[in-house]
Amino acid sequence: MFPDNSAGALMTPEFICILTGTRARDALQIVRDAGLDSDAIYTLFVTDINRKLLGIMDIRRLLFAEGDEPVETLMQPHPQSVRIDADQQEAARLVRRYDLISLPVVDENGVLAGVIGVDSIVDVIVEENTEDFEKMNALLPSEDSYLNTSAWTLSRHRIPWLLVLMLSSVLAGKLIQGFEDVLAATGVALVASMPMLMDTGGNCGSQTSTVIIRALSLGELKPGDVLKALWKELRVAVVCGFLLGAINFARLAIFGGASLPIAGAISAAMVLTVIFAKALGCLLPLLAEKMHLDPAVMAGPLLTTIVDVGSLLILFELSQIAI
């Protein structure tokens, strides 16, 4: 009846609905007559005669209320709710953000259709986190457990992104071939710095993308906040980049046997790579969210591919200037 992964597919019809105007003593009798399990009576839902959601009420508040007190004075008006056709991630975001034990589900007219319990939300959070983890590590999501998944299925899920990453390595190799004269002129110092530079860039990008994706999933960040997020990450990148660059310059000049111009070029490449990687790690997930794509895909293999090639290009261009 409802699409998979929608709030409607998660909701249950087992909830207690109290009509506005009902007195506290009568509401308690409704709870007794309902005979639902204990999970269903923690939160009561106040509606009008057309079942339009008006508020929610904690069962403890009702237990200690005066018998003649109307439920309107006991309820919390304008409660958090989710549309019946909303994605399950939106429901999970609301439950986490507002510490809810149940979330009302309404239709386009605000009519109460069902309730999502916190146990269902926990399952969604585990499922979504597992899926994001797999995507960020270049895996296609699997619905079955590891031991119940065949080796062929696992291989099929891993091969596509492995091919993408292999092609990125081919691009990096072609880039190195195009700068053979620079490598010959600079010696071993430049070659030895390439893995460090690529790994540092990948780590910086992954740090930023993880923070951005988490902020997106919690509703703390929206695609419209791109300039604020980018400005914050650029400041972080400048601090981290210059600190790492200074340490790297001292290492190369004192222990690495590199000339000062080459040590300066490699260290400057470190600074620019950190800034580039952190900016990309910030922008790609936000761009994916704006385009209604999964940010986790952007944060994993695609980010690694671009940062690897970009860091090498920065290194070779600066080294060419230095010699």
TrEMBL record:
A GO molecular function for this record?
A: metal ion binding
Any one cellular-component term (Gene Ontology): plasma membrane
Q: Could you tell me which Pfam families the record lists for this protein?
A: CBS, MgtE
Keywords, ordered alphabetically: CBS domain, Cell membrane, Magnesium, Membrane, Metal-binding, Transmembrane, Transmembrane helix, Transport
Identify its membrane topology class: Multi-pass membrane protein
Q: List each copy of the CBS domain by range.
A: 11-73, 75-131
- Location in the cell: Cell membrane; Membrane
Entry's transmembrane regions = 236-256, 262-284, 296-316
Top-level taxon: Bacteria
User: Could you give the subunit structure recorded for this chain?
Assistant: Homodimer.
Similarity remark: Belongs to the SLC41A transporter family.
Q: What does this protein do?
A: Acts as a magnesium transporter.
Give the protein's recorded name: Magnesium transporter MgtE
